[in-house]
Amino acid sequence: MLSRTAASLYWLGRYIERAEFTAQLVEATLRLDQLAARPAGSEAWSSALAVATATASFEATGAPLQPADVAQYLLLAAANPGSIRSCIDAARHNARAVRTALSREAWLSINRAWISVRGHQHLRDSERILNLIEEVKADARGFEGALNRMLHNEARAFIALGTAVERANGTARLLDVKYHLLLPQGEAVGGAVDRDQWTGILRTVSAVTAYRWLYRQGLRPWLVADFLILRDELPRSLMASMERIVTLLNRIGQRTGMQGEADRLARRQRGAMRGTSIDSLFQGGLHEYLGRFIGDIADLDRAISQQFRFT
Description:
The chain is mainly α.
């Protein structure tokens, strides 16, 4: 497989996952604003921008920190490279470059998402925002379903690798922002607002029901952290993502003979995670741990690019 083909497949996986994650993030923030005991206010929306690493670019627009303006920026702003519109545009561009490596169903799901997103212009009310989010989620799941029916070849493996890397990065940023920024001053840890916000985190990764199945103690911040970091039962946890990355790199290496630094970094990070506990992470500083993890994922992404000669 040509390196530019592998790069397009890898980034196709990353962009589709990023679009779905952003849709879930905006939906969870909007639900929190609507259903909480009191409105979530600017803290929740500023945290959504922080998770999407879009705080500085949004502030540069001069728009007010209002739900409709933040949602518009995260969902449809062409000037925001992380918006859903930009991610779907980039995914379609990469998919067109590797059209023959994709099944017809996979291509159609991407094209359908592109057409759907371009049919929306201004989202000035929650109903329109939620309609777009549901469309994006449905198209992302349609793409995932199409991938599951593709041959388990190198093309599918590179898409899945991009998805796993993006999931690890997104979940780590989500948890880090909540732990460090989201709780308003004056609110008690474990209070009503705090519980709503932690529920919002679980909703962002589609894990509210799964959490209740695994933990009988009720909603506890340290248990949510344990769930999102160390429990491999959750597909979007850091542990599950790292397990997936190691498996996919090994599979690609066996097929192509291209193994190297990316494999070593992934195995080392997975090994370190297997040997830790949530108690030790809190004792050493959860914010510091997540910051290192995000940095390690960035290093891994660069190693993947170099190993498979993406650039």
